[in-house]
Each structure stands twice: as C-alpha cells, then as structure tokens.
Automatic annotation (TrEMBL):
This is Homoserine O-acetyltransferase. The gene is metAA. HAMAP family: MetA_acyltransf. Pathway: Amino-acid biosynthesis; L-methionine biosynthesis via de novo pathway; O-acetyl-L-homoserine from L-homoserine: step 1/1. PANTHER family: HOMOSERINE O-SUCCINYLTRANSFERASE. Its main location: cytoplasm. Its EC number is 2.3.1.31. Pfam families: HTS (PF04204).
Length: 305
C-alpha cells in the first residue's frame, strides 16, 4: 500500500520513477480507511535527501500512511530552500495539539557538541516530551537516538577515538522481537558518527531492552519495554552512494577521514559500493510500522496515551 505525500514534494517524482506506489492526496481522500499518521522531524541539513530516503522506506507497508514533515522553528536551515520549507514543512506550534500514530526523529551532524550546545536543543526537548503523550510510538535515528536516550533515560553519549564510518555486521539479540521479524541472523547497516552509547549503560537502565549489537559498531537497536520509543544507532535508510558522498565531501574539506569500512570493494573508493543493507533497512521500517503502529495504535487518535 502507498504513502500519502503532497503531489509537488520532490520525493514524489523520485519515488514514482523507482516504481514505488505514491498516492495523490485526491485519491487518498476517496478511500474509506484511516491512514496511519506519521510525523517526521527532519533535523538533517540536506532535508530533501533525508526526507526522500525515509519516505522510500515507508513505502512498502500494509496500510495507507499520511506523512507530515516537521522542522525546528528555533533554527533556520542553511542548506534547504526556504520555499521548500514553507511549502512542505510545519512547525511544532502547528501540531502540538494533535496526536500521531508514529513519529521519526532523524539524526543531525552535531554529535561532537554537547546536547545543550545545540541551537535547537530546548525545542527538541519540548518535542520529545510532547511525544510521550501525543505519539503512539517514536523511532529515533542516529544522533536523534542518542538525544532521545539522554533526554528520556539519562544515557550519556560517549566520544569515539575515530569516526565510526562504514557498513557493519550486526546480530539480533532478541530474535522474538517483531522489529526483527524476517531478519537474517547477521545483517548489515551503515553507520556514520563520532559518538556512541555504551551497552552497559543500556543494560543498567530500567525499562530499556537491547535488541541488536555489532562487534565493531556497538549498540545498534534499543527500545522501551512498552514499545513507545525505539532508538536505532545507524542509518538503515541510507542510499547506495550516501557514504561515498560523505567520504568525498570530507576529503574535499581536507579532513583526516578513513575510507568507509566494508563498503567499497577491496576498500577502493574508485569502485562502485556494494549494497548489503537495503533489505534489512526496509524490513526494519516496515516491521515498526506494521507491528508497533498498525497492529496496536488506537483507531481514535485522541486515545493515544
């Protein structure tokens, strides 16, 4: 079934060209079903790229999904055209009185800053506090996951000696979890970050479940016992060339950056990367939507929480 997004959103044409079913607003209005309402708080500077990546993963689901895009009002994006933001994004003041089946909080390239040094940290805290009572289940990604674990559960992020950068193997610790239904025993996922959370801190925190880890990349997936919050440390939504573009960007800046691990054949940046995470990334998003939203969310959204 399709995702429902505005006809003029740049992602619409991209997804349709990939043979992904995107429903027009007109057609959606004439279907006698209630779509899942999913709010995406996009904290990435390259908003169009990120929104397209996530919308691609939300496409293969059993029900209609109505997606809304949210941005922070306390920080003005320097990399996205203001007309795009005005046309397709809303702000927290416009949604604070509404309820949602699901919410996704993206990563952001600010992990080397302390949380309280991030310009929009107070607003993000307000949004995360609001999600406890107005969202059935929230999926936090990368820095968004570290921010959520710190705000909700007091888990500190820890600096890495070197950027964790590449595609890594992971193991599912809880095979009975619906989030990993259909996964192989070992699966791959991309990472691109300078900080991490420690497994011992997760295990010591009441109300948290550690679901998947990597011997190289550490903690990967965590959720609350009531499944209202999920924290994913990697980027299962990344495109095939995302890490390559990040690598070349950093090289052009003169940064001391290693070739992404387990990504280019024989670690040769001149060769085309091998995608080993697409199916697992799709399953993760699909399972979250199906088992933690569609199967459990109240039909009447006013009854969320």
């Amino acid at each position: 079934m399709p995702i429902k997004i505005p006809d003029a959103l740049p992602a619409t044409a991209i997804l349709e060209s990939e043979n992904i079913f995107v429903m027009t607003e007109y057609r959606a209005l004439h279907q006698d079903i209630r779509p899942l309402k999913v709010l995406i708080l996009n904290l990435m500077p390259t908003k169009i790229v990120t929104e397209t990546q996530i919308l691609r993963k939300l496409s293969n689901t059993p029900v209609q999904i109505q997606v809304e895009l949210l941005r922070t009002a306390s920080y003005q994006s320097q990399h996205t055209d203001e007309d795009h933001l005005a046309s397709f994004y809303t702000t927290f003041d416009q949604v604070r009185d509404r309820n949602f089946d699901g919410m996704i909080i993206t990563g952001a390239p600010v992990e080397n800053l302390e949380f309280n040094q991030v310009d929009y940290w107070p607003e993000l805290c307000e949004i995360m506090a609001w999600s406890r009572t107005h969202v059935h289940s929230t999926l936090h990604i990368c820095w968004g996951a570290q921010a959520g674990l710190y705000f909700h559960h007091g888990i500190e992020k820890r600096s890495l000696p070197r950027k964790l950068f590449g595609v890594y193997e992971h193991r599912v610790l809880k095979p009975s979890s619906p989030l990993f239904r259909g996964f192989d025993d070992v699966f791959c996922a991309p990472h691109s970050r300078y900080t991490e959370v420690w497994e011992k801190d997760i295990r010591a925190a009441p109300g948290l479940e550690l679901l998947a880890t990597s011997s190289e990349a550490g903690v990967y997936a965590v959720k609350t016992e009531d499944s209202s919050q999920f924290f994913i440390m990697g980027h299962p939504e990344y495109d095939p060339d995302t890490l390559a573009r990040e690598y070349r960007r950093d090289i052009d800046k003169g940064l001391d950056i290693a070739v992404p691990a387990h990504y280019f054949p024989e670690d040769d940046p001149a060769r085309v990367p091998v995608v080993r995470w697409r199916s697992a990334g799709q399953l993760l998003y699909t399972n979250w939507l199906n088992y933690y939203l569609y199967q459990t969310t109240p039909y009447d959204l006013s009854k969320v929480r």
